[in-house]
Write a structure and sequence with these properties.
- By secondary structure, the chain is mainly α.
- It has helices at 2-21, 31-51, 53-57, 60-63.
- Helix 1 (2-21) packs across helix 2 (31-51).
- The radius of gyration is 15 Å and the shape is extended.
Length: 67
């Protein structure tokens, strides 16, 4: 479980750093909330593809990512 927490912290830091680097291109936002939403979305998509790859990989927009 410690490995997952470490990965989650690293992903949060990466996403937040990216958002901070693009801050001048966005309206004023809460970076903590934006980071949470993006990381949660990434995690959800990855989880759904892992548990149901056939359903998601059959879609043309996703099929090349599943190879």
């Amino acid at each position: 479980m410690g490995g997952r927490r470490s990965l989650y912290r690293e992903l949060n830091a990466l996403v937040r750093t990216y958002l901070e680097s693009r801050r001048n291109e966005m309206r004023k936002i809460d970076l903590d909330a934006a980071t949470f939403i993006r990381v949660s979305t990434i995690e959800s998509v990855a989880h759904n593809v892992a548990i149901a790859p056939v359903r998601y990989c059959a879609r043309p927009a996703l099929s090349r990512r599943c190879r």
